[in-house]
Design a protein that fits this description.
The protein has 633 residues and is α+β, with helices and mostly antiparallel strands. Among the domains are: 56 residues, no CATH class; 75 residues, no CATH class; 109 residues, Sandwich (Immunoglobulin-like). The chain has 18 helices and 20 strands. The strands form five sheets. It has a six-stranded antiparallel sheet with strand order 1-2-3-4-6-5, covered by helices on one side. It has a five-stranded antiparallel sheet with strand order 10-13-12-17-18, with no helix packed on it. Strands 16-11-19-20 form a four-stranded mixed sheet, with no helix packed on it. Strand 19 and strand 20 form a beta hairpin.
């Protein structure tokens, strides 16, 4: 390829996720330029049209950006001969920040802060004009000199998330994405601020904050885990830089800097505030000369004697008093604060011990239902549907799940309390019916034996439970008549087997059906934990449905604790058909890690599936064992 549009190709600079970057020359003004071609492989026609429309809109908007730290966009177009869309940019020779980090170029904290300040200033400028970069990373930052630091790829529209692959692999890595991007949520300027925080973390420590052996592990860490504190990797890192990086890397966008301008101000303040440094030998020599001159000057013109302060008088007075010299010792205010703080902590610990004395701490597990808030309406509608059908247990399940999403809702609280009351009421009524039936049958049995006294007692007990029971009333009214008339009592005979069964204590019978009922499948995950603290995550068909944090430490002594093995059993809602179950176990602590395994199984109705999780601490891997059993009617 010799030309793209009217531009002459000089050489190939590199290849990116979306195309090739060339060094080119403008034949009209003989100026070197960088041309990036856009590849649209794998897109449908309507998606391709939508992407190109957005591509030219963003290129037009970015073409109006004029900032010393942003690579200028000169042109964009389509070459009909080679059928390629392209964008023409300013050519900047130099190294990328990625190369500087990989080579671990020795830079002072001030020099690193100056690089970051220029990046933040460029982002602030672009954001103020409504442009979000969405791909801030070291490879997109070019450094060609101390004052020449530029961000590239502004205005290049990004491919839809569903077409980031052409051969089943990610184009690049999600290492510099924000949690919003990983989870597919809406993205704004605060996504760039999170990516800026990752770049700053890596520039200061020469280590990525979120790394892993595969795409799933990296994405999981970005969305749910915090990186190793920067202070641990770089102990001498200044506090202002630690504060900036920590705030930028907040998972919640509302807790980050709300604009890049504030980051630029913080970095500027760090750069211009004078640092305490050791003086060079030359400075020391100059100071000695100045002191000599000052001494000579004092011999010529004697200065007035400085007036003694009240504090100096106090110190000098007690220095001369034997036995009271300690009152003249200098008191440092910081030691006063330290001693006072320690005194307060000792008292707080003592009060806490007395308050919690006698209370035992047992292994606890915190249960989280990670339900999308947008599904709240669906949960409520399902609960109402089951409530109309008088299926109270199922209705309670959905309303309780909705209550976990919005615990402060008065409506959900009242529904849950009401349904529980209905369930209790129905159980009580069922129990009363069985008791009434039992006493009536006992009374009939007594009548057959002409034991009128016992019969009346049994029928009376049935009426005490159900005063409106017609059968018991009729028997009581007729007992006196039969007793006077001395007529044989006609009580309908029942089969011996049935009578023998009814003479026993009343039991709730399950009516048997001729045909076996098809039951919905059930699944449980069981985990006997060899680690004291962490969390278990279960995903079904790509959707996270269980996230359970556990802590199996128990209190030992005053401030001590020890680990006792604990176990977790969690139900997993599942449907018949092919299902993909993914399981992560994460250990919390300095030696923490995440182990992952998956299970692709065909689920059948009327079957209970138990997934046993086994964690190998040495190899830091998990294995899964599946058990199946039939669910009877």
């Amino acid at each position: 390829m010799k030309k793209i549009g009217r531009y002459e190709i000089v050489s190939e600079i590199g290849r990116g996720a979306m195309g090739v970057v060339y060094l080119a020359k403008d034949p009209v003004i003989d100026r070197p330029l960088a041309i990036k071609t856009i590849r649209l492989m794998g897109l449908m026609k309507d998606e391709s049209e939508e992407f190109l429309k957005r591509f030219y809109q963003e290129a037009k908007a970015a073409g109006n950006l004029s900032h010393p730290n942003i690579v200028t966009i000169h042109d964009a177009g389509f070459d009909k001969e080679i059928e390629l869309h392209y964008i023409v940019m300013e050519y900047i020779p130099g190294k990328t920040l990625k190369e500087i980090i990989q080579q671990k170029v020795p830079l002072t904290f001030e020099e690193k802060a100056m690089i970051l300040e220029k990046i933040a200033d460029a982002l602030s400028y672009a954001h103020s004009r409504g442009i979000v970069h969405r791909d801030i990373k070291p490879a997109n930052i070019i450094i060609s000199g101390p004052d020449s630091i530029k961000i590239t790829d502004f205005g290049i529209a990004k491919l839809p998330a569903s077409h980031l692959t052409t051969d089943g692999q990610y184009l690049g890595t999600p290492t510099y994405m924000s949690p919003e991007q990983v989870l597919g949520k809406a993205v704004d300027l605060r996504s760039d601020i999170f990516s800026f925080g990752i770049v700053a973390y890596e520039l200061i420590s020469y280590q990525k904050p979120f790394s892993g052996s595969n795409l799933t592990e990296v994405s999981h860490k970005i969305a749910y885990e915090n990186p190793i504190p920067l202070k641990e990797l770089v102990p001498n890192c200044p506090e202002p830089l630690l504060y900036i990086v920590d705030k930028c890397l907040s998972k919640d966008p509302n807790l980050r800097f709300q604009n890049a301008k504030d980051i630029s101000k913080e970095l500027t303040n760090f750069i211009i505030i004078p640092k305490k440094e050791e003086k060079e030998p030359e400075d020391t020599i100059v100071l000695k000369e100045e002191k000599k001159e000052e001494v000579i000057f004092e011999t010529v013109i004697p200065q007035k004697k400085k007036k003694e302060s009240i504090r100096e008088r106090f110190v000098n007075y007690f220095k001369s008093k034997k036995g009271l010299e300690f009152l003249s010792y200098e008191i440092y205010f910081r030691w006063v604060i330290v001693i006072a703080s320690l005194w307060i902590l000792i008292w707080a610990a003592l009060i806490g011990y007395l308050y919690f004395k006698g209370k035992s701490i047992s292994p606890q597990t915190t249960k989280y239902y990670f339900v999308n808030p947008f599904e709240l309406k669906e949960l409520i509608l399902k609960g109402r549907a089951f409530l109309k059908e008088n299926q109270y247990e199922k209705a309670l399940y959905y309303f309780e799940k909705a209550l976990l999403v919005n615990p402060s809702s008065p409506y959900l609280i009242s529904e849950v309390v009401g349904i529980r009351s209905l369930i209790d009421y129905n159980l009580k009524k069922e129990d009363e019916k069985l008791q009434v039936k039992f006493y009536i049958e006992k009374g009939e049995e007594a009548l057959r034996k002409k034991d009128y006294t016992s019969a009346k007692i049994h029928f009376s007990k049935a009426l005490e439970i159900d005063p409106k029971n017609v059968e018991a009333k009729e028997y009581i009214d007729k007992i006196d008549e039969w007793r006077k008339a001395k007529k044989p009592i006609v009580v309908p005979e029942k089969p011996k087997e049935e009578i023998a069964q009814k003479l026993e204590e009343p039991k709730i019978e399950t009516p048997q059906k001729k045909e076996a009922k098809v039951l919905e499948p059930k699944m449980e995950v069981r985990f006997k934990s060899p680690i004291p603290e962490g969390y278990l995550v279960v995903s079904l068909n790509g959707k996270q449905i269980v996230r359970k944090t556990f802590n199996f430490y128990v209190k030992k002594g005053f401030l001590g604790k020890e680990f006792k093995e604990g176990s977790i059993e969690e139900p997993v809602p599942i449907k018949a058909g092919q299902n993909l179950v993914q399981i992560w176990v994460t250990k919390i602590g300095k030696d923490g890690y995440t182990a992952y395994e998956k299970l692709d199984i065909e689920i059948k109705n009327s079957t209970l599936y138990v997934v046993n999780i086994f964690l190998d601490e040495k190899q830091k891997k998990i294995s899964l064992k599946l058990e199946e059993s039939y669910l009877g009617n």
